[in-house]
Amino acid sequence: MSSDETRRGTALVTGGSRGIGAAAAIALAADGWDVGVSYLSRSGDAERVVSACEELGRRAYAVQADVAEPEQIERFFDSVTAELGAIGAVVNNAGVVSPSGRVAGYDLGRLERVFRINAIGAFLVAGAAVRRMSTAAGGAGGVIVNVSSRGAVLGSAGEYVDYAASKAAVDTLTVGLANEVAKEGIRVLGVRPGLIETEIHEEGRLERIGGTPPLGRPGKVEEVAELIAFLASDRASYMTGSMVDVAGGR
Ligand code: NAP
Predict the structure, then answer these.
(1) What are 104-146's pLDDT values in tens digits?
(2) N or C: which end of the chain has fewer CB within 10 A?
(3) pTM > 0.90
């Protein structure tokens, strides 16, 4: 049963069916948000996240929506708004990596896929959020938290420089949009996770390099989710345009 006194509003998480997005949805629910999650194909996982949020006393809703498709993003925002109420926080989390390889071997299809989902998708989701939350458009303001990567700074040489570059675009989106909408009641922030234990990694990668961060281990999804929930909350009310690393010192 959800309590109106502790309710912060409605938060939306792209790629909320598993990994960092699922943990972020649950952390947001624990912090008082009703949560809409999108997923690409794993509806069962998304429904488990909905149940976990409901067990925390919040309402939750899952929608299949590809962040590379503008009309599916619009449908995600509209159906969550209809189900849970006006959106006050958006976590731009959905993302993919490509198979490990050197730049010289990247073909057009690979580059289009990773930039379309990670960079263009993030822009489309951010735009959809601003159109609904901006006080200049009649909205009540809100927060956008973009999930980038330490790779944006480190470059991911020999693995996926294209992925790293798509995340650098997310960093620039964060600072540019933050300045654009600061006076419209919207804060825009980013997190740069390091090596986090999820299914995104190729087989054996975490075992191979998981011990290399200064803290000596990979991170857990909850350790990123806690930061996302903090940034989305009023506890971070004087923060905008910042990228925060959560990478064990990497
Ligand atoms: P993950 O475990 O592979 O989960 C990816 C999530 O994104 C899933 O919910 C998936 O949905 C969804 N998704 C994938 N493509 C999508 C699309 N086109 N449209 C909508 N949803 C889509 O990944 P993760 O490790 O949690 O990563 C989450 C974010 O953190 C990504 O942006 C990633 O780049 C970033 N990140 C991760 C790490 C790390 O070490 N794990 C480090 C730095 C940054 P389905 O379940 O339906 O497939």
Answers:
(1) 999 999 999 999 999 999 999 999 999 999 999 999 999 999 9
(2) N
(3) yes
Mutate to test the pocket of ligand 1, among 40, 100, 163 (most ligand atoms within 8 A of CB): 40
- Number of domains the chain is built from: 1
Contact between 22 and 62 (Cβ < 8 Å): no
232 pLDDT above the threshold of 60: yes
61 is catalytic: no
pLDDT digits (tens, 9 = 90+) for 177-220: 999 999 999 999 999 999 999 999 999 999 999 999 999 999 99
How far, in Å, from the CA of 136 to the mean position of ligand 1? 32
CA distance 129 to 148: 17
State the CATH number of the domain containing residue 216. 3.40.50.720
Cβ of 45 closer than 6 Å to ligand 1, yes or no, is yes
Ligand 1 lined by 94 (C-beta under 6 Å): yes
Structural domain range at position 96? 3-246
Q: Which of 39, 61, 160, 163 is catalytic?
A: 163
- How far is the CA of 179 from the CAs of 12, 155, 184, 185, 187, in angstroms? 22, 26, 10, 11, 9
Q: How far apart are CA 231 and CA 225, in angstroms?
A: 10
